[in-house]
Amino acid sequence: MSGGPIGAAESFHEAARRSRSQGAAFAGLDYDRAPLLVIWESTRSCALVCKHCRASAIMGRDPRELGTAEGFKLLDETAAMGTPIFIVSGGDPLQRDDLEALLAHGKSRGLRMGTIPAATERLTRERLAALARAGVDQVAFSLDAPSAEEHDGFRGVAGSFEKVMAALGWARELGLPVQINTCFAAWNFARLDAMIELVRGLGIVFWEVFFLVPTGRGSAMDGVRPEQFEEAFAKLHALSREAGFVVKLTEAQHYRRYLLQRPPDERPRAMGASAPAVNAGKGFLFVDFKGEVYPSGFLPVAVGDVRKTPLGEIYREAPLLKSLRAPALLSGKCGACEYRAVCAGSRARAFALTGDPLASDPACGYEPASFGKSVAK
Fold first, then answer.
1. Which among 81, 116, 198, 229 has most CB atoms closer than 10 A?
2. Has this prediction a pTM greater than 0.85?
């Protein structure tokens, strides 16, 4: 990516097209060998006080954080594993003065690098320009409601909505492709239509729509009901067919089942029985600030430590991760479902709500025919 500005909307359209084509290319990755993406919680320090924060982030830096050299090693091991995408997250990654060096190192190893700056005073045009010079492929900002009052109330800091809007303008000037992250739960689900309309006009290349997994501070919140998921699937599917940006659903693996129930000409080109949904420990891996490895940031069961064991060895050999990649081990409805190989439900939500990462995802309302027969017996 060049460091110069882009002035035309077509440039963002081209970035979105590249995101789609790269997504199709990544679809053939063997999730038993390498995850599609690794997210590193590079710090828990953050000035926001978000109501759903899985890490209950605070402002102070933790002396146990992985240092710069350890971050470089983590990036090296991710690239060696065959993973194409690496996200430097937090907390607020802007709290790290070595963020640019980390991004540049990842790029030198052939990784597609992204980061998720928090909407605080540290988010400035100058810092975004530094990220662009480091070669970051995409930056993500969070918007959870269509108005400043609602969004700021959720994020816990006044002015965070307007900061995101300002950052969108800076990113456009700098030629930085932008992703918007939105987390839906009971409190804001009624704002889905309004969020769709807002996001349409932001000039982004990617909208990642999260659905609450009740962990951390989010344990006190109610999630989206099964019938609401189906409503959201219909609206987001319609948007994806005409929007000039990628629409991706996270912790909604049963969207894959929804798509397969649609007529073939209404499914994404990369969709198919051989393309399983990314899930905790299956195409996805999370490394916390001190190097402990988890199937997901929303499934807080440690499976290794990068300070002791290479990341690739952890991903391929940890017993829990191997179980999470085995659809035959699923129980309940998910175990009986004909879509289990391509969906498998949210393993993180199953763990959060039942204590069993292999249980059925309570957010899915689909009733497999074979499950109904077995219950009747």
1. 229
2. yes
